[in-house]
Amino acid sequence: MNAGNSLAAHTTPVYVSVDGGGFQNPETIAHYIALASQYLSELESEIKVVNNDPERQSWRYRKGLEKRIAAAKNVLERLKQR
């Protein structure tokens, strides 16, 4: 992208699966599943609290976030079973 005299580039990772394998590291996956689960639990708690702080207004999006949290938990559960 050329914006006058400035240049900028954007990249997106490309993940390749070989023979149906995933791209997660089997040695660290349990740690990251636990960490993601913790973050989801924190978000579940936070969206239940009405807060006027502009940086803490996730409660306004509670319905949509609950759906996304449930979907993320399903993915984590499938990863645990591998």
Protein architecture, described:
The chain is mostly helical. It contains 2 helices and 2 strands. It has helices at residues 29-46, 62-80; strands at 2-3, 6-7. The chain has a two-stranded antiparallel ribbon. A hairpin with a 2-residue loop joins strand 1 and strand 2 (6-7). Helix 1 (29-46) runs antiparallel to helix 2. The model has no long low-confidence stretch (mean pLDDT 88).
* Structural class estimated from helices and strands: mainly alpha
Quaternary structure type: single chain
Count of β-strands = 2
Major β-sheet annotation: 2 strands, antiparallel
User: N- to C-terminal separation?
Assistant: 41 Å
User: H/E element string?
Assistant: EEHH
Give the rounded overall mean pLDDT. Answer: 88
Helix content: 40-55%
**Widest β-sheet, arrangement of strands:** 1-2
Uncertain segments are none
Range of strand content: under 5%
How would you sum up the global shape?
A: flat
Radius of gyration: 18 Å
**Count of alpha/pi helices:** 2
Provide a brief overview of the structure.
By secondary structure, the protein is mainly alpha-helical.
What's the structural blueprint in terms of helices and strands?
Blueprint: E1 2-3, E2 6-7, H1 29-46, H2 62-80
Antiparallel strand pairs: 1-2
Helix pairs in contact: 1-2
